[in-house]
Design goal:
CATH topology of the domain at 72-84 and 523-756: Aspartate Aminotransferase, domain 2
Helix content: 25-40%
CATH superfamily of the domain at 72-84 and 523-756: Type I PLP-dependent aspartate aminotransferase-like (Major domain)
Number of strands: 25
Strand content: 5-15%
Number of helices: 31
CATH architecture of the domain at 72-84 and 523-756: 3-Layer(aba) Sandwich
Radius of gyration: 28 Å
Distance between the termini: 63 Å
Bound molecules: pyridoxal-5'-phosphate
Strand order of the largest sheet: 2-8-7-6-5-3-4
């Protein structure tokens, strides 16, 4: 595939004294690399690759990518691209509003590695800061929507409505149709229709008021959008009557709503909605040309156990201190697989944190003031239009005015654009004007000028028939941190509780916690990238167009596919898009009956959940004793399902961290039976530059840019999950109603380019690494994993290995025999690692009772050794439990992690010393480690997760709870 020419830097080449970026990205320098190779008895990285990777899949020619740029050159290129975007004042609306990110939040959350390099809070003891921020988010959504339980974020508004649809389907027994408001956002209609079609659910869009349209449909749920796409606000009485009518039919009411409007208008929970959904973007999150933004969902009592996505709840630690952790995880796909409530894994944590902090900073009064100002400006503008003889379509609105200008709409929009404002061209006769928090008087003047009307100076607003009467955000957290000093300290206090990559290694298998370089991160804040509305005219988004087509081209090159789409905004969504492409392909050939998806037992939970969402039936393929796909069982399953076979979904290298020899045969067997091969590309960090899934037999893959391509995890999102496909599947990659020419295939994300705003990160990574650098990164990732496996092998059995006893980019340490002999569990080891200053590896995936370690190429030898030393020291501690020196119920492992309060308590009754508890094994982290200064102290002790599930609390506990 031809790769588009990359823009070239404008500055002179850097002086050669500056080290190339690749040596900043890769941790081990040459001497360390040689030591690691020597420890493995190898002479070169190439020797390692030859030993570990099957020849059959190796690439023969190097990647065709432009030469690596320096960090300054890359910033130049990206600044140039940002400048090619004309991010005018965004008054287009349609679910994306102009907002002002408070600087204290931008710099100390969005741009702070203590927040953005954190992992998903699966280890709650070291994640209390972001869990508190997410609990604030849940409390904020719950208060504003008037519904008791809110999740910790979804991917965007359109997918949130789709998730609400499946929730409603599970929760109701009657009806066959989801009825959408006539004023639903067009992208929501697109996403919901795509998702419903695959599941065999009927969707209808009302052709008039919902209450009247109810008569014509047998509904299981109704979506009411208020304010609507046109700006129209539905009165509370009308909403209440609608809810009653839907409930009388046994259906559910889903309110698609606007958090800022809800500070002034009646909450969905008050008028009878069962579910509320929407986007929290306008709470201080930049537009980012469409994302990432945090979608939200909240539900009435009785529906909480069916919520999609993650949910933070309050529990307590061993000492009874209230502590936060993810609640009801048994709903999630890691456990429930094809029966999960949703396939969502990576969500939008960083953006949910930003939105929640916006509410913390402004407080209920501040939010109301912002809402009132927005509403007053919209009302004033509507009055000016009316005075000037322009028809204003709706009498009741919050921030968006729909103006009727027969035949003149395009001219008005063009004139406004001249004046520095993007308006919405609704159709030839209508213009939408959405007033955001950031709209200045000069912008309103430009709008008036475009319409040819004058300022009558009236700025008042009332919301007759929709007013809110209930309080919100009464918790102290929303009423305390209103000065910048207080806010700064609150943010620092929370991030100090968390262990992120700025403190140490996060050796998580399957998650690739590598360097997120500062040069990669900086451009996301450039106004040209951050300030652009996703539906801005293409001529004002030329920088993004080049960035996106270049990046898609590079990703196609590294994966060996014909076409890549960056629209999916997480790996799970890439899976869905890829499976829908397979479905579309089969159906285009008249193969409607091909609906079986084979999935190996070791697969990531999202795989099975996504297959179900794509309307497929999951059939599990067994693993052999060595962990690879059982080809005999595969043959048998293909035999049984030959005519119905749609696809197989495999991860390569396998979730066991091994390059399976049988991959080419597996692809051939499935193809021969008429099926397609989906290779889950989340483990591309073991392949990049060495092998291309599109060339070794796969038809489609998703990649995770938030794993292999340096987008930080953000504490559980954002992500980008591009889908790459072979030529024959190219006509079936996601389209979008706002992308002319692509409407044939439905979208999987609200925005045409998904989370466009974070694509500069991956762009910068590839630009700075070049073909050789990317290949070197892969080789060093393999080296690091094999080095760790080698050092730990004598202490913990390495569960699976491939050819020549080598692993790929990660390895599984088998604790099960150790647990059997000593009673010490993976949990104990994971929590004890915190005392040693580490984040735990992945626990019990893909094999229960094991730990999966992925060190990545970015950790230097000293950090790798520190981790291995810690694991070896822990093994010696286990030995002391095993041989009876320490009782099974009283030892530093079962009591880990140790808080400061515990080790400094007046009383100490344990058979091990305080020093052993807090400063184990004489391991040194830094010169001031021994004084406790350089030590990471967990803010709480071991958390009782099931207590929280039995006593579900998902909003901020009152301050007295901490007394
Ligand atoms: C991370 C991962 C996924 C899911 O990606 P998300 O972005 O979290 O949705 C799927 N498969 C594998 C193997 C993964 O490691």
């Amino acid at each position: 595939m031809p790769v588009p020419a990359a823009p070239t830097p404008t500055s002179a080449p850097e002086p050669s004294s500056s080290a190339p970026f690749v040596s900043r990205h890769i941790g081990p320098q040459a001497d360390e690399r040689d030591k690691m190779l020597a420890a493995l008895g190898l002479g070169s990285l190439e020797d390692l690759v030859q030993q570990a990777m099957p020849d059959a899949i190796r690439m023969t020619a190097p990647l065709d990518l432009p030469p690596a740029l320096s960090e300054t050159e890359t910033l130049d290129v990206l600044r140039g691209l940002a400048d090619q975007n004309r991010a005018l004042t965004p008054m287009i609306g349609l679910g994306y509003a102009g907002t002002t990110t408070p600087s204290v939040i931008r710099r100390n959350v969005l741009e702070d590695p203590a927040w953005y390099t954190a992992y998903t809070p699966y280890q709650p003891e070291i994640s209390q800061g972001r869990l508190e921020a997410l609990l604030n988010f849940q409390t904020m959504v719950s208060d504003l929507t008037g519904l008791p339980t809110s999740g910790a974020s979804l991917l965007d508004e359109a997918t949130a409505v789709a998730e609400a649809m499946t929730l409603a389907r599970r929760a109701t027994k009657t009806g066959s149709t989801l009825l959408l408001d006539a004023d639903t956002l067009p992208q929501t209609v697109g996403v919901v229709t795509t998702r419903a079609e695959a599941l065999g659910l009927d969707v209808a869009v009302a052709d008039g008021p919902l209450l009247a349209a109810l008569e014509a449909h047998d509904v299981f749920a109704v979506v009411v959008q208020t304010p609507g796409a046109s700006g129209r606000l539905t009165g509370t009485d009308e909403l209440r009557a609608l809810a009653e009518a839907v409930h009388a039919r046994g259906g559910l009411v889903i309110a698609a709503c606007d958090l800022l409007a809800l500070t002034l208008t009646a909450a969905p929970g008050e008028w009878g909605a069962d579910v509320a959904v929407g986007s929290s973007q306008r709470f201080g999150v930049p537009l980012f040309y469409g994302g990432p933004h945090a979608g939200f969902i909240s539900v009435r009592a009785g529906l909480e156990r069916t919520l999609p996505g993650r949910l933070v709840g309050v529990s307590k630690d061993v000492d009874g201190t209230p502590a936060f952790r993810l609640a009801l995880q048994t709903r999630e796909q890691h456990i429930r697989r094809e029966k999960a409530t949703s396939n969502i894994c990576t969500a939008q944590v960083l953006l949910a944190v930003v939105a929640s902090m916006y509410a913390v900073y402004h407080g209920p009064e501040g939010l109301r003031r912002i809402a009132e100002a927005v509403h007053a400006r919209a009302t004033g503008l509507a009055a000016d239009l009316a005075d000037g003889g322009v028809e204003v379509v709706h009498g009741s609105f919050f921030d968006t005015v729909l103006a009727r200008v027969p035949g003149r709409a395009a001219d008005v929009v063009a004139a406004a654009r001249e004046g520095g404002v993007h308006l919405r061209l609704a159709d030839a006769d209508h213009v939408g004007i959405a007033v955001g928090e950031d709209a200045h008087e000069s912008d309103l003047a430009a709008v008036r000028h475009a319409f040819g009307v004058r300022d009558a100076g009236r700025h008042h607003g009332d919301l007759a028939g929709s007013e809110r009467e209930t309080p919100y955000l009464t918790h102290p957290v929303f009423n305390t941190h209103h000065s910048e000093t207080a806010m700064l300290r609150y943010l620092a206090a929370l991030s100090n509780r968390d262990f992120a990559l700025d403190r140490g290694m996060i050796p998580l298998g399957s998650c690739t916690m590598k360097l997120n370089a500062t040069t990669e991160m900086e451009p996301i804040s450039f106004h040209g990238f951050a300030g652009l509305h996703p539906f801005a005219p293409v001529e004002d988004a030329q920088g993004y167009a080049t960035l996106i087509s270049t990046l898609e081209g590079w990703l196609a090159e590294v994966t060996g596919y014909a076409r890549v789409s960056i629209q999916p905004n997480a790996g799970s969504q890439g899976e869905l898009a890829g499976l829908l492409a397979i479905r579309g392909y089969h159906r285009s050939r008249g193969d409607e009956g091909r609906t079986v998806c084979l999935i190996p037992s070791s697969a990531h939970g999202t795989n099975a959940a996504s297959a179900v969402m794509a309307g497929m039936k999951v059939v599990v393929v067994k693993a052999t004793d060595d962990g690879s796909v059982d080809l005999d069982d595969l043959r048998a399953k293909i035999q049984t399902h030959r005519d119905a076979l749609a696809a197989i979904m495999v991860t390569y290298p396998s979730t066991h961290g091994v390059f399976e020899e049988g991959i080419t045969e597996l692809c051939a067997l499935v193809h021969e039976a008429g099926g397609q091969v989906y290779v889950d590309g989340a483990n591309l960090n073991a392949l990049l530059g060495l092998a291309q899934p599109g060339k070794f037999g796969a038809d489609v893959s998703h990649l995770n840019l938030h794993k292999t391509f340096c987008i930080p995890h953000g504490g559980g999102g954002p992500g980008v999950g591009p889908v790459g496909v072979g030529e024959h599947l190219a006509p079936f990659v996601p389209g979008h109603p706002f992308l002319p020419g692509s409407e044939d295939v439905g979208p999987v994300s609200a925005a045409p380019f998904g989370s466009a705003g974070i694509l500069p990160i991956s762009y910068a990574y590839i630009a700075m690494m070049g073909a050789d650098g990317l290949t070197a990164a892969t080789e060093h990732a393999l080296l690091a994993a094999n080095y760790v496996a080698e050092r730990l092998r004598a202490h913990y059995p390495v569960l699976y290995t491939g050819r020549n006893a080598r692993v790929a980019h990660e390895c599984i340490l088998d604790l099960r025999p150790i647990t059997k002999a000593s009673g010490v569990t993976v949990d104990d080891v994971a929590k004890r690692l915190v005392d040693y200053g580490f984040h735990a590896p992945t626990m019990s995936f893909p094999v229960p009772g094991t730990l999966m370690v992925e060190p990545t190429e970015s950790e230097d030898l000293a950090e790798l050794d520190r981790f291995c030393d810690a694991m070896i020291a822990i093994r010696a501690e286990i030995e002391q439990v095993q041989n009876g020196e320490w009782p099974a119920e009283d030892n530093p492992l079962v009591h880990a992690p140790h808080t400061q309060a515990r080790v400094t308590a007046d009383e100490w009754t344990h058979p091990y010393s305080r020093r052993v508890a807090a400063f184990p094994a004489g391991l040194h982290q830094g010169p001031l480690y021994a004084t406790g200064s350089d030590k990471y102290w967990p803010p709480v002790g071991r958390i009782d997760g099931s207590f929280g599930d039995r006593n579900l609390v998902c909003t901020c506990p009152p301050p007295e709870a901490f007394e």
